[in-house]
Design goal:
This protein is of the alpha+beta class. It is built from 13 helices and eight strands. It starts with 15 loop residues before the first helix and ends in an 11-residue tail after the last helix.
Amino acid sequence: MITPCSRDIPLGQVIKGWDEGIATMKRGEKAILTCTPEYAYGASGSPPKIPPNSTLQFEVEMFDFYGEDCSENGDGGVRKTVINEGSGYACPREEATVTISYTARHLDRVIEERDVKFVMGDGSESGIVPGLELALYKMKMGEEARVSVKYPYGYGNSGNAHLAVPGGADLEYTVTLKDLDQPKYSYELSKAEKLEYSAKAKEEGTLYFKKGNYERALKKYGLIADYLGDGGNEGDSDDEEMEEDEETKKDEGGDVEGFTEKSQVLLIAAHSNQALCYIKLSNGKDASKSCDKVLEMDSKNVKALFRKGQAAELEQEYEEAIKNYQLLLEVEPSNNLANRQIVICRNKIKTYRDKQKKIYSNLFARTNFKDPEPTKDDNKIKPDFSDSEGEEEASVDVENTEINV
């Protein structure tokens, strides 16, 4: 006897018969699923309850269904349901070029239908909402899917006046991934390509920074480290590469020394700009880490020293900030910005200390160890303290009294 139960069914994690049968059902539908052994537990069965080579029947009612959660935080804000399976195993990576065809709906109204080609990560530049782009990261070539997008992953609270979409509107897309051109991995790039791609990423990062899209700018600057390695000599120390002839080195991007110098310039710019992005996002810890990467390559880099000071200020570590500004002044004594920030930090330290002093001063002022002043009522009663026992009881050791503050 099998006990009825109500449960969530994660497709792809149950027997084949459930995967294929339940995928065909509609919301509210009731069905009998008959699963032969090859669609159930096969020749081995599932001891002790299910014997080998068993054909099973399940009475199933579809209460509701949810697609695959594609949201970054697992909050269910973006869900994808496959309509037609794609081919292969590869899904789009960051910086892949994709061509998609989609229909967007709000309630029962079609708001947009179009084909569009864009670079993954840059979808907003082509009018792609964040939720649709997140779903595409989980799609295969040729796949058709239905994507439900909650408003925070769509047009937010502001809506889209051009498409007549109000603020707070949830959307539904039917989308097909028609073409996919994956980016090369770093190890597939020649040295010339690494420098070229890094320079392009720097330009794109700067454009996003100017638009105030600091998160996207961070990703673009981060690509430079991916291409070049944090030290700018990725692979240069490998024995096999050192044994290559000069002609091969030229084919891969030119002289090794020139490549290293150009790489370092790009890496310094990338990490320095990342630090500035983090500062704009009020993230002092990561800003400081980015500055450290610059200073490992150039210990006297003025921008890195200044931004490391700013990062320390964000974390309210004013002594550390002053230390970095003073290091900057050793390199560039006439730097007025550093001098100004030192004054600001010292004032903040003084303000903090004065505040703490006032707090403790008021605290101890409220703690009174003096005998209370006699009142008229005290004079009415004059107890006899003549015997020695009474005197002993009236004695108080003030010096050894502990105070809990």
